[in-house]
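Let us practice reading a record.
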Amino acid sequence: MKNPIAQLRTILKDLSKVTDDERNAISNRAFDEVAKLMLQKESLLSQFEEVASALTSEQLTDQLIGDLNLIRIRAEENAKILKSTADGAREARKRLQKIRDADFSTGAYGANGNKLRNPNASTVTTKA
C-alpha cells in the first residue's frame, strides 16, 4: 500500500488529467464524454477525501493544498463554461421556437375572421 501522501499526489495527478479532458470535451461539444468524466472526477474526489481524512493537517503540505486549489479553480471554470453552453442552447431553442411560431402566425385572417396559421394559406381567389 502506498503511503497516503503518495496516494494523494497520484489522485491529484489523475484529477488534473480528468479536468483537462473535461475541458477538451466541453470545447468539442462531446457532452456524453463530459458526463463520464464527471463520474470519474466524483470518484477521485471521494478517494481524495478518504485518504486526506486519515492525515493530520500538518501532513497536508502547502504543495498538495495548492495543487488541489488549482484543480478546483479549473473545475469551476469548466462548470461555468458548461453552464454558459447550456444557457446558450436554451436561448437558441427559445429563439428558434419564436421564429417557428412567427412562421405559423401570418397576421392574415380568413373570411370567417379566424387567424390563418398556415404560412402557405391564401385568402386570395382567382376569378375565371
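A brief commentary: The helical segments are 4-27, 31-53, 62-104.
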